[in-house]
Specification:
With 161 residues, this protein is mainly alpha-helical. The chain contains 5 helices and 2 strands. A hairpin with a 2-residue loop joins strand 1 and strand 2.
């Protein structure tokens, strides 16, 4: 039963990301529909004439259709790009053990993070100690040395009365 929890949490995370994609796609579609409405409102009302006093241009069905096609093409490219980015985020997720920091390669196969990074990217890793861990280790060593140097007092013999 414990082995199913990580899979369930990953599925929940994937569903949340898909929901986020649907939310983003909804707003993208809405914004592009507003652009289409503006294209047709411009064709009907001639914004340049209304706002800036430019000479009136005649209604052109061809111009409106071409502008709409351009906006819809932009919609397809934008949503497709968003989908590909979301998919790469989901497929790029790694499951890492909270305790030993091994990476899950397959359902029952785990690999040390150093081996995984070296194998998947060709990057060679070296080990070091960050300043925070260095301070912790040094305090631990100093405490152990202090405890080892503390003399143990011998048992005091009881006085004979």
């Amino acid at each position: 039963m414990e082995a199913m929890k990580p899979d369930k949490s990953r599925k929940t995370l994937v569903l949340a990301i898909r929901h986020a994609f649907a939310y983003i796609a909804f707003w993208q579609v809405l914004s592009f529909l507003i652009l289409v409405l503006l294209v047709w409102a411009n064709e009907l009302l001639d914004f340049a004439h209304l706002f800036w006093g430019a000479p009136r241009s005649p209604f052109s069905l061809m111009r409106g259709c071409l502008a709409t096609a351009g906006v819809l093409l932009g919609l397809v490219v934008t949503i497709g790009n968003t989908y590909l980015q979301q998919r790469s985020i989901v497929s790029g997720m790694l499951t890492i053990c909270s305790y030993c920091h091994k990476i899950r390669i397959d359902q029952d196969l785990w690999q040390r993070i150093e081996q995984y990074v070296t194998k998947s990217s060709g990057i060679m890793l070296s080990h070091g100690v960050c300043p925070e861990c260095y301070d912790k280790v040094m305090q631990s060593i100093e405490q152990e040395e202090a405890e080892a140097e503390t003399p143990v007092s011998p048992a005091v013999p009881a006085a004979n009365a």
